[in-house]
Amino acid sequence: MKREKKDYYEILGVPRNATQEEIKRAYKRLVKEWHPDRHPENRKEAEQRFKEIQEAYEVLSDPQKRAMYDRFGYVGEQPVYQETESGGFFDDIFREFENIFNRDIFDVFFGERPHQEERREYTRRGEDIRYEIEVTLSDLINGAEMPVEYERYETCPRCGGTGVEPDTGYVNCLSCGGTGRIREERRSFFGYFVSERTCERCGGTGKIPREYCHECGGSGRVLRKVRRTVKIPPNAEDGTQLRITGSGNAGYYGGPYGDLIIIVRVKPDPRFKKSGSDLVYDVTIDYLQAILGATVEVPLPEGGTTMLKIPPGTQPETVFRLKGKGLPNRYGRRGDLIVNLHVEIPKSLSREERKVLEELAKKRGVTIG
Length: 369
Fold this sequence. Notes:
alpha+beta, 9 helices
């Protein structure tokens, strides 16, 4: 017999492009409306309707199950194809190969592999959350505590993460009858074959909630905004990832929390160029300062400045190295601040300046003009 397909969207009374929030609202309204205790005069019909609502929500509230349903029209057990007398010899063979390759050939002929787990865990770990945070060079040198704000799923306070409406409990799974296993008999070109597999609906437990939690819709978790402080270590570099255990999303059905992964992004400082743990700073002085000597102010990455003495007669493109004024490396030692000295030669001179330089050139025996 060909299995009857159910329109889960019609059961919940929502369009096919409904959002998860619309599906959740429709579910909450319908489970209250069709709860069997509210229909004592027609309890069997209410129970059947109630089960259909639960089944529809179970599929449409899960993105993976919903995607499979939208594509194939079913979730879990594969559709049973109706045999026809007109199929013929080759149609039977092609249909059998289609059934085989939709499942592992070992499973079709012999059941699930012996080394596979008898049942999968009902709980599942929550997802990790990735969060980028921007820091300055000063933060990298001194260390910093940065406030972060993000949304994460937390364990539902109403059901404690079980996904079950309090005081309702569990019932036998409708798909496997409480056994946790799905038994299939297939007639093929080669004969009859029997296979068993874990029930996808209950995950092999044999039980499903009698009624899903009205707060979280059965997922066992709710979305909350979280504020916390993250400590940035002094030796962090651009792209460094900091893992904060248990600060990600709550697990499914009481599973453990995922982690919060902080990705450090270093805000560029236009004054400096980064070269490993060294910083490069360019300073330009007048040619007279290079000739006569001078003291120039150099900014520091952690804030403030230091004074750099330029000796008389310093040549253009001279490099000065200020030890320990750069960024911390992985071992905590600071690199250097490298100062590249550029000398500016004036393109034009006043009459007085030119006269002085000409007299100086004559005394030094320098040919000009």
